[in-house]
Every structure is written in structure tokens, then in C-alpha cells.
Amino acid sequence: MESLNRGLIAVKVKNGVYIGWRLFGTDPEEISFNLYRDGIKVNPVPITSSTNYLDESGVEASIYQVCSIVDGKEQPCSEKAEVWETSFLTIPLNKPEGGITPDGVAYSYSANDASVGDVDGDGEYEIILKWDPSNSHDNAHKGYTGNVYLDAYKLNSTHLWRIDLGRNIRAGAHYTQFMVYDLDGDGKAEVACKTADGTRDGEGKVIGDIGADYRNKDGFILQGPEYLTIFDGMTGRELVTTDYDPPRGKGEDWGDDEGNRVDRFLACIAYLDGERPSLVMCRGYYTRAVLAAYNWRDGELSKVWMFDSLAPGNEGYSGQGNHSVSVADVDDDGKDEIIYGSCVIDHDGTGLYKTGLGHGDAIHVGNFNPARPGLEIFQVHETPQAMGTEIHDAKTGEILWGIPSTEDVGRGMAADIDPRYEGAEVWSSTHWKTGGAGLYSSSGEKISDLNPQSFNFAIWWDGDLLRELLDHDYCEETGIGVGKIDKWDYENGRLVNILTADGTRSNNGTKGNPCLQADIFGDWREEVIWRTDDSTALRIYTTTDLTDHRIYTLMHDPNYRLAIAWQNVAYNQPPHPGFFLGHNMEKPPVPRIYEVKNQRDLEV
Questions:
Q1: Is residue 326 within 8 Å of residue 363, measured between CB atoms?
Q2: Are strands 389-393 and 399-403 parallel, antiparallel or unpaired?
Q3: What is the tens place of the pLDDT at every residue in 89-102?
Q4: Which one of 51, 54, 107, 375 is most buried, by most CB atoms within 10 A?
Q5: Edge to edge, what strands does the sheet with 468-475 contain?
Q6: Which of 233, 258, 124 is nearest to 182 (CA)?
Q7: What's the pTM?
């Protein structure tokens, strides 16, 4: 896994300066820390119980460093951290100019989904941001769209590059699933996504025919070549381009000839051999579903396997996909599987199982019930049925319990929000117009007739181990909302607001997504990136609540780190680690990982 720095941050608060830093998954258990302000140690004894600190004597001009202590010896100090004036870091953006479609309709741009990766190998994450035109469309809707852009920004606001995907890539949630990850183990992340004739890389090079225009009169792109491109993360330069696999083929195989179901794409990163990451590009889930796995090694792109639901032996896998995807080692063999919705594809490209419950919009994979072995999958389904909301065993597909639905259940959430019950709690939007179906424990016990009217994201934010709920104040008139974080008052059955990010906006309509939620820096708790209301900047919000829980950075948990890679895919879903993180949790298992250093630095 990537080699990170300590992610040290310092934030001015009312009674001093809050400081937070990373515990690595590779750190020895007995490690402790010293904290320095302007070169002077501020802690009287080594810090052993947490990776955050309140320096009551700190001021905005202070400069901090943290030094680990191993076997009684202080190690070289971390990078330096200046003090933030507020609890968010502002990153100004180079907002693209709008344009006019061939039918004379003007459009503008908003910052949309984002991902993170260390593209230059310095141990700090960079942000890869997708720009969405105002006329982006769901696949079911006609209309031209503006071009899709991908930008890279450093945390110091440096704009590294821009990739223009060109007129032959349509804009919308189901088209551009961009993966950011160190695919070849050189210590620097690459960027991978679907491209087409006219795509321009970060150095200005055009892929394919710059003059080609395959858009039909309805704005759909149903002809012309389709490509998969790996880009250099530091420069945006094209490294390799190959034909996109799976190809369109016959439209009716995917469910229609109108550009709807044939152009439903997913993507993810998975450790298919248990050692190094592979790229998995996917197409289709309403009917036919095809997944193709690739390795990017030593400058060569090779296909590892392909799974096709129409192939002999794969009967029953068609129609089992989701508007999202997840990755985890569900059978504990040390190799990752792809959770494609109501089916799981094994690490070797064969079908592991299917539940037969069909397509759904929301899915969560994690150790939600610590009383039973292995992982669970919580899923909601589009087709009304006896198990419209359900939990099943991630290894076998055995349905553990569920509740019926009479409509398309579009949302579902799994998070530990009530300490009175073991494990996570789950709820869904079934019957939401009449208040919902209630709140359930992970073992299926109905806790309350009331459930949170917040279904979109969950986030570890304050000082306890319960998870908070990340959402937005949605405005039906504008279709967007102001980002917010609420805590569930389990005693009174209500949401209590703990953060309203005034001046920000959510993404993707009613889904209320941030640009990204991830453990980007500081201790194990999560940060959230929202765009400003005019998309001239991103804001990265961090907690300043003290906690005495010491947990290694979630980015060193493989399940969580891979979830950050796939978070931008289609209908964004929140990340979960591979262990239970919540009230009365056991000590997290030591992750079986090693860090990959930047090869250039090693040579020096």
C-alpha cells in the first residue's frame, strides 16, 4: 500500500490549537509520540493513548511537528504543519469555461466527484476532481452534454493538469468512473478511465481522431471506438490506451438499443492475487454484466480475466448488478472479490454466488455484526419483494434476514448509531413517505419505529466510536443542498445537527454526496470535501474534537482504501473498513500490508 507521511494538521480552536496525525498500519503497537511547537516539545510525557492533542498555548503563527518514539528512541520528525484559521482547508479551483451544445443550449460547470491518490510520491494525497457540465444526463434521458474534465490539485492548491475527455464521452453519473491508485507499485498513483476519439491528455496530446463526432441527434454516443487509458498521475500524460473491454456489442444484450443500459459502467481496484492491485472495468447490470480485470506492470497493460454473465456456466448472474460496486476479501483467502450487487465475482474471474434478489441502488459491505464470523452485505433492491431490504452473508450469499418492500427502495444505510445494540444499525427508505420501516439491529431486531431521515452517507467525526450521518439540506427547487453532519439522538429518536457547512453545495441531486469522504489526514477519523456554492473552490473539512481512541489510519485498511477508490462510481456509497469500528469494538486487527516507497527516492 502507499507510503504516507504523518498527515499532520493543526487547527486554531477557541482554547488553543488542535493537532492530529496518522498512526500507520505498520507502526509497532508500543509506539508513542512527542509533539513540537516551533521546535519546543509541548507534551510533558510521551503521547501513548491517542494521535491528537490540544495545545492550549498554540497560536495561529505556530509551526508543529510530531516525532514517533520506538524502543525508547525518538525517530526523525514529521513534515511541518502550519495552523489553519478555520476547521476547513480551502483549495481554489481553475473552473472551466462553459459552452454551447450543437442544438444551441448553453451550459456551465460544477465541481463533482473527487478521489485522492499520492501522484508524486511525497506521502501526501493529491485530489483528482471531475468537472460536471450543467447539462449532464442520466442514461435514460436524451440531450447533448458538455465535455467532462478531470483535474489534479495538490493540497497547497497547485493545479497539476487537466484531462479533457472530449465530445465522445457523455457526461453523467454512469459514464466516467475514474480510478486513482498506484497500479504498478512505483509509489505514485495513476489515473484510469474510459476515453474516446478526441480525448486530450494532461500534456495536450490527443487520443485517436480529434475530428470525430459520434453523437447522434439525441446526444447519445452509440458508435465509434471506445478506449481504456492509463494516465500518469503527476502529469496527466497518456501512458497506454487500449480498446475498452467489454465493447458495446449488440445493444439488446444489455437491455435496449437506446443508449440507456448499454452505457452503464462501473469500475474498481482489487487485490486479485492478494499482493498487488488490479484494475477492473465493468459494463452493464440490468441484464448482461461483464467485468474485465487488468494489470498495469512495468509499463505493460495486460488482461487478467473477463467475466461475462452470458457465458456458459454464468446463468443467473444477469440482472444482479447495482448502481455501485464494492470490493472485499469475502471468503478470507487473502484475495479480493468484487461485490457487484446481488452477486459476487471471485478473485479468479469466476462467479462465487448470486442471491437472485436483483438490481439495487445502495449497498454496504463490512463487519456489521461482530457477533458472527466474517463480513456482511446490507443491500436494498429496486423490485418490490419479500426481501426489499436485507442482510446476507458476504461469503456464501445466505440471506440472514430482511423486510419486505412494496416499491423501489432507493436508499439504505448501515452505521453504528446506537450503543445499546451490538454492531451496526441499518435502515432504508422503504415506506419513507410514511416515516420509514424503522430502525433495525444488524441481527434483525427492530429497535424503533423511527429511523433517521438521512440515508446518504455516514462518517466518523466526533470523539466517540459511533458514526455520524453526512447529508445535505436539500432544496427541491434547485436540486442541491448545503452539506451537513448530524448525530442520531438514539434516546429521543431524532437527528441533532453538529455541522452545517454554510457556503457549500452537495453533488448528484437528492443523493446529497460530497465530492469525497475519506481519511485524508489527521487521525483515524474522516474528512469530507464539499465544493463551494459557486464551484470556485473545494473545502476539506476536518474534525477538531479530541478523542482518546487510537486507531491506525483507515487508509491502511485495504477494504476502506479500496472503497475510497470506488466511491466516485455511479451512485456514490460511503466507505467501510474490513473490521467492526463502533461502540464496544475489539482492538482492530493488524493489517497485513507493506508500504511501497517512491522508487525514485529509493534510487537516490
A1: yes
A2: antiparallel
A3: 999 999 999 999 99
A4: 51
A5: 457-459, 468-475, 480-489, 494-500
A6: 233
A7: 0.97
